[in-house]
Fold this protein.
Amino acid sequence: MRSWIKSGLEDWDITRDIPWGVPVPLEEAAGKVLYGWFDNHLAYISTALKFLEERGVDGREFWNSADIYHFIGKDIVYHHYLLLPAVRMGLESEYKLPDYLPTRGHLTLQSKKISKGRNWYIGLRDFLGEYPADYLRYYLLSITSYSQDDLNFDWDDFATRINSELIGNLGNFVNRSLGFTAKSFGGVVPEPDGDDADDQAARLRISGLAESVGSQMESNHIDRAIRRVMEFSAFFNQYFQRKEPWRGRPGTASCIYYSVNAARSIAVALYPFLPGSASRMWAQLRLEGAVSDTPWDSASELGIRAGHRLGRISPLFAKVERAGIEKQKARLGKR
């Protein structure tokens, strides 16, 4: 941006001679409409105000007291770094500028540019007819780093990440811990029966989850944030394996108590990323209210007490089959 300013900025027309758009409210500009990127920046404010004021919230006060993020692609940096501030400054600071402008690269498909004309794209309706929305959310979150580097949607990588990470790690832990509780404890969370080094490490991991994930979200490292959730799940998979509750030895009840609480913590931390999956976990835990209404910091609490009865347990996810992936790849490029 500094180099643009140093090289000298040029005037930018904010009207267009086209049949659609927002008409310029001046007699001498009859037939002209506003340039899309000019009124879009104002619409960011007006749509937010409409949404808030319909709910009895002072829109201007909310806007000016909030942390404002504009998530953009690298091809519209000029519009948001220069044109947007100029438009806002023309409002005489009535509405503040965005605080953060996280900028990402372009998305390719199978290492090629996405093109609807060449049928090299994935239709959202087609995708949702085959896979849950949370699968798409998880994959895109996992591959999108906080940089302007381009990223690539690869069907084989998609299947690998869903099957090995989302299902093999997180889904496996939730299903085995809650399923074991249902099978061996009648679905009732037991009172801890010991406190060894593994249990202490488990409590420590739970107590630090909200800060661990939240700090990455606040820094716009969304891929790192969801990775922290997956690392948390992997830790408890190992914890469950080390404790071997199926052997029925002393410490089994403690293992189940902390594992069920870890599942609850995962549901809270996972909700911003995979709302459908987190809500299903919440239902299987049979917790009151909605996970969406649960305070973020409670992800670091032991929110389930001994004596709590779980709901009906079932697998959270279904495996992505190889035949389905080959079918998706075969569709590309065909007219």
Q: What stands out?
A: The chain has a mean pLDDT of 94.
